[in-house]
Design goal:
Elements (H helix, E strand, L loop, with lengths): L1 H11 L2 H25 L3 E3 L6 E3 L6 H21 L7 H17 L3 H17 L3 H21 L2 H10 L3 H9 L8 H11 L1
Antiparallel strand pairs: 1-2
Helix pairs in contact: 2-4, 3-4, 3-5, 5-6, 8-9
Length: about 190
């Protein structure tokens, strides 16, 4: 029923209202990030190591990442289609930048991968050639900076290298999920299906 209400609301409101609502949600999440930096609250235990991951108002950092990925992709689609209303452009771009920044601090490799893949698919499907090139250049530069100045690539490689297919098969047959990070959880779950 909540999806029906969301769909009904989206048909009744303007694009500006949707982006303002997304920015309001992102503002609440950003405020919790300040509290996270100051106190360590609004976080969950990291899958690897002894650190913590920012989760904001969500139960897990990956849930935060899913929401931010969805919001970022909504902005990507508008950016690639072109935003005829010039007054809306700063709102769409700032929504993209804030949601992508929050996605990065959530340290969700799956969320980043979904954003990259979704952006590539959207860029291939829509927009003028110059707009596609410019957006892909900005996206590639941003992710190159992420991988250069954070340990996101190392974490992703660690998740891939730690895959134990025998343990995944064993856990899948017992319907026992989790324990080795989100990638192993997904592989175990899909194997069990």
């Amino acid at each position: 029923s909540s999806y029906v209400l969301l769909a009904a609301w989206l048909t009744l409101v303007t694009k500006r209202s949707v982006f303002i609502a997304m920015m309001a949600l992102l503002a609440v999440i950003a405020a919790t990030y300040v509290a996270y930096l100051a106190t360590g609250s609004f976080s969950v235990r990291a899958d690897f190591g002894s650190g913590r991951r920012f989760a904001g108002i969500f139960v897990h950092a990956n849930h935060l990442a899913y929401v931010c990925t969805f919001i970022s992709l909504a902005a990507v689609v508008d950016i690639l289609r072109g935003i005829p209303d010039r007054s809306l452009r700063p709102l769409v771009w700032s929504t993209f930048l804030v949601s992508t920044s929050i996605l990065i601090v959530s340290m969700s490799s799956g969320g980043l991968l979904a954003l990259v893949c979704g952006s590539l698919i959207a860029a291939a499907a829509m927009g003028s050639a110059s707009r596609k090139f410019l957006f892909l250049l900005i996206l590639a530069s941003g992710f190159a900076l992420i991988f250069l100045f954070t340990d996101a690539f190392e974490i992703l490689m660690q998740k891939i290298l730690l895959i134990d297919t025998q343990q995944i098969s064993r856990h899948a047959s017992q319907y026992k999920f989790g324990g080795k990070g989100s990638l192993a959880w997904r592989l175990t779950y899909w194997t069990a299906l």
